[in-house]
Amino acid sequence: PSADPAGAGFQVHQSLLAFGSGGVAGVGFGRGRQKLGFLPEAHNDFIFAMIGEEWGLLGVITTVVLYLLLVLVGFRIAARAPDLFGQLLAVGLTSLIALHAVLHMAVGLGLVPATGLALPLVSYGRSNLLITLASLGMLMSVSWAKERPVPVRRRARA
Q1: Separation of alpha carbons 38 and 18, rounded Å
Q2: Which one is predicted more confidently, 132 or 22?
Q3: How buried is 5 (Cβ within 10 angstroms: 0-12 exposed, 13-18 middle, 19+ buried)?
Q4: Which listed site, 49, 108, 136, 146, has its alpha carbon 20 to 30 Å from 120?
Q5: Quick one: CA dihedral 111, 49, 25, 129, positive or negative?
């Protein structure tokens, strides 16, 4: 991004400026300057950078910790699922949400190329929000599932 800050690296460069201007405590909620046209798609593709600017390092750490808690709860649900299907479903859904979050955060920090992924449960994006909420609903369903007793057939007496 620093090799061509006005061209191909513009968005990532502006994202890094947003993180840098946020400092430790941020500039304040709603007071971010990068979303005023400097950082394109700040409401979805680079919302993590806006969190970094407006809430600072504390907001970034809080966001990461909340996603880590979501992942830990998802894997705990998978470990307690009554059957193999529930375990695999819970691991898959949790991994999907975690991968989206990690990739979005990595794009905002300039670690990977810009991909256009939304930050689950935070970014503006109707289809992504719908899929994330459906995934969380299925995850809740797995957490509520109980081991069903296997029906025992009795022999017919002759």
Answers
A1: 10
A2: 132
A3: middle
A4: 146
A5: negative
Q: What is the 8-class DSSP label of residue 154?
A: P
Q: Residue 6: pLDDT above 70?
A: no
Q: Hey, what amino acid is at 33?
A: R
pLDDT in tens, 121-131: 988 878 889 99
What is the domain partition of the chain in residue ranges? 10-144
Phi, psi of 132 (to 5 degrees): -65, -45
Alpha-carbon gap, residue 37 to 32, rounded angstroms: 11
Quickly tell me which residue has 């979005």 as its tokens. 104
Tens of pLDDT, residues 93-114: 999 999 999 998 998 888 888 7
What ranges in the chain are assigned the alpha helix state H? Answer: 10-22, 47-80, 84-108, 126-144
Structure tokens at 141: 């369903």
Is the overall model pTM greater than 0.85, yes or no?
A: no
